[in-house]
Design brief:
140 residues, Jelly Rolls, 6-stranded antiparallel sheet, 3-stranded antiparallel sheet, 3 helices, elongated
């Protein structure tokens, strides 16, 4: 099963929690055991898994990335968003999460987040759920 989640960011740099939307897709797929791929088809965005209980963690991640890769550095890319491309490459465009007994196997505090580095924009995340059937995997 391949689904899309529309994502709207409100700031240039933002971590947007997609966990409940990904869980809903997994639940609707009927897959009990397998894996779920969450992918951002954008060169200035990413997908990450991290703590979603305390908002200060998201702020710390974004603040440190901005210090590490400032927006207004002397980049040669003329669009003015090279920092976003670098951040996206460092974080990565996808995450794979095992599914067990029909549930994402995330840790207690973990959440699936869309990382926006060039917003505000309208984006999407692609979710592909693949499940096991009698020892074989099938895409559902």
């Amino acid at each position: 099963m391949v689904s899309e989640i529309p994502v709207s960011s409100g700031r240039r740099n933002e971590l947007i929690d997609l966990t409940s939307k990904v869980e809903k897709i997994v639940n609707e797929s009927g897959v009990k055991n397998g894996f779920c791929l969450v992918y951002a088809p954008h060169t200035t965005a990413a997908i990450t898994i991290n703590e979603n209980a305390d908002p200060s963690v998201k702020n710390d991640i974004l603040n440190y990335l901005s210090k590490l890769i400032p927006e207004n550095s002397n980049f040669s890319h003329s669009e003015g968003n090279s920092d976003a491309h670098i951040k996206s490459s460092l974080i990565g465009c996808s995450e794979v999460i095992p599914i067990k007994d029909g549930k994402l196997t995330l840790g207690t505090w973990q959440g699936v987040m869309f990382a926006e580095f060039d917003g505000p924009r309208s984006r999407k995340a692609i979710v592909n759920v693949v499940g096991g059937l009698n020892g074989f995997f099938r895409s559902s």
